[in-house]
Amino acid sequence: MAVILDGRKVSKEIEEEIKAEVSACTKNGHRPPHLVAVLVGEDGASETYVTAKMKACDEVGFKSSMIRYDATVTEEIILAEVDRLNKEEGVDGYIVQLPLPAHISVEKIIDRIDTTKDVDGFTPANFGKIDQEHHSLLPATPMGIIELLKRYVIKTKGKHCVVVGKSHIVGMPMSILLAGPGDATVTLCHIHTKNLAAHTRQADIIIVAVGKPGLITGNMVKEGAVIVDVGTTRVADSSKKSGFALKGDVDFASVEPKASHITPVPGGVGPMTIASLIMNTMIAYKKRMNL
Q1: Residues involved in catalysis
Q2: How far apart are CA 144 and CA 221, in angstroms?
Q3: 144 and 105 within one domain
Q4: What share of the chain is helix, strand, coil (3-state, %, to 5)?
Q5: What is the pLDDT of residues 187-207, one digit of tens each?
Q6: Which range marks the domain in which residue 52 is found?
């Protein structure tokens, strides 16, 4: 039976560590760190994510603020908000929650964010520093995965890691982190990869982030592989009060018996992404406050 990589448990440990740091700072007369979330529209998943992020801020002693806009807001207004947050001295980090309405350019918004406040790690400048020793604000989800592996003493050095999905939020930065600081041999697969199973069967570690429930099945993994499932797709489920269940990209029932370690969905990577956001905010805060 596989060891469950419990993101909820590890994220709570991280929160306790950050909480102690914040307490020490405020006892020395410093203001608490301040994280701002900008939410556009009424996307249910986004609402859930932002609420969880704000709750985590409260848990560790951060100041948190949410700025809301209707889905009809213009791109110019969001860009102006970004400019304001860039200049606001009392803001250490902020996120513009994705996805955005189709009429707003995600690229324009991200390009405008001050890299020192980019706690999601999405700006081109921060992305470009991923494999360098002086990086600071890493993309939150890959950062969370690396931290989860580290806390379960799962080494990546010399291992063959297969990353499925090449998004700029997860797959691409994940592959760079594994190949660079992680010293792993990395295969990056995606929608155009032929015979995906031929690649995944060779992997010591599989990280999948494509948003296709049940993509990775038991016959696609080797015995003892480490499985990290980033997928969180809402699937209709009448047995649930909400009417839906969250499903990962991994068919847990068939893969878990063969794996040495595996993340659950939910409760695996999701909480670690929020923990990384908190860690990045603390890094940004300490730099801003010269601590």
Answers
A1: 53, 97, 120
A2: 23
A3: no
A4: 40, 20, 40
A5: 999 999 999 999 999 999 999
A6: 30-116
